[in-house]
Design a protein that fits this description.
Helices cover about 0% and strands about 35% of the residues. The protein is mostly beta strands. The protein has a single domain, classed as Cupredoxins -  blue copper proteins (Immunoglobulin-like, Sandwich). The strands form 5 sheets. Strands 7-13-12-9-10 form a 5-stranded mixed beta sheet, with no helix packed on it. Strands 1, 15, 18 and 19 form a 4-stranded mixed beta sheet that branches. The radius of gyration is 18 Å and the shape is globular.
């Protein structure tokens, strides 16, 4: 996926700071591209039947035509064949006045149940569809129990993202994209949501909290709306897909990217699966995920 790099803070990596990091540590080096290198089969350029003659994503031209709505559905399950790394309770949580009582809050970046992997972003790769794609509403990220919810968020470039502080404590939203930092803003308890359209390029934006270093989330911006995030049972579903042949990508914050080429979609359902083994190298945008915080 042609996702530009996010520095680390790459983050909805190291203990720096949304996708967000902390304690004045230097953000890790790293990329806004979908990280990781392993592919399920060699990457090929998919051939896609044109669905519209409209300009590219974000076009505001008067003659822009809406993308054709398809009748296909991509669905599948993300499986995990390896041993999930253990992420213990963050040491810093015990010192945080409010967060220390949120022991049940999810802090593990690798969630595996019955061999199925959650929080995997799955999408039709960039550059294969054209259309005047616009989000119907803002995407939301909540800081809740001293975690970002959801951990993985799919968006269109320039889509409004509203970031809420649901906790009775101060957070600091710090987002990274490559060497840039589109957001670095304190958010007191009870304050209005931070609303931003600064996630303007395709790629991965890492968010972290400068107050609570274990908090992080990743917003993945793609040039088309055909994406999903795997649920607790590893399942995903992408609906209303136009007919054509596509390259699909799957991305996990710890294990990086897998690809499948020449996935043909017609009317009806197409089942596609991805499998991670746990041996994949952590993508550049999340270097340090298992280090320093525990």
């Amino acid at each position: 996926m042609t996702f530009r790099s996010i520095s680390i803070a790459t983050g909805l990596v190291a203990a720096a700071a949304l996708v967000m990091g902390c304690d004045g540590e230097k953000p890790p080096e790293g990329g806004g591209k979908l990280g990781g290198a392993k592919t399920s089969k060699p990457a090929l350029t998919a051939t896609v039947a044109p669905t519209t003659t409209a300009p590219a994503v974000g076009s505001t031209k008067a003659d822009a035509k809406p993308a054709v709505e398809g009748k296909g559905t991509l669905k599948g399950v993300i499986t995990f064949a390896g041993k999930a790394p253990e992420m213990k309770e963050p040491k810093a949580r015990a010192k945080a006045e409010v967060c220390k009582d949120t022991k049940d809050a999810q802090h593990n970046a690798v969630i595996v149940k019955d061999g199925k992997l959650a929080d995997v972003f799955v999408a039709i790769d960039n550059g294969q569809l054209t259309g005047d794609f616009k989000a119907a509403k803002a995407a939301e990220v909540h800081q809740k129990s001293c975690n970002y919810v959801p951990r993985i968020l799919g968006i269109l470039p320039g889509q409004e993202v509203a970031i809420f502080n649901d906790d009775a404590t101060l957070h600091n939203v710090h987002a990274y994209y490559g060497a840039t930092s589109p957001i670095n803003q304190a958010q007191a308890k009870g304050s209005d949501p931070i609303k931003t359209t600064k996630f303007e390029e395709t790629g991965i934006y890492r968010m972290q909290c400068d107050v609570h270093p274990w908090m992080r989330s990743f917003a993945v911006a793609t040039d088309n709306p055909y994406f999903a995030v795997s649920a607790a049972d590893g399942s995903f579903k992408i609906e209303k897909v136009p007919a054509g042949k596509y390259k699909l990508v799957a991305w996990h914050s710890m294990f990086g990217k897998l690809e499948k080429a020449d996935v043909e979609v017609k009317d009806g359902e197409v089942t596609v699966g991805f499998e991670y083994t746990g041996t994949e190298k952590a993508p550049a945008e999340n270097v340090g995920e298992l280090k320093d915080l525990f």
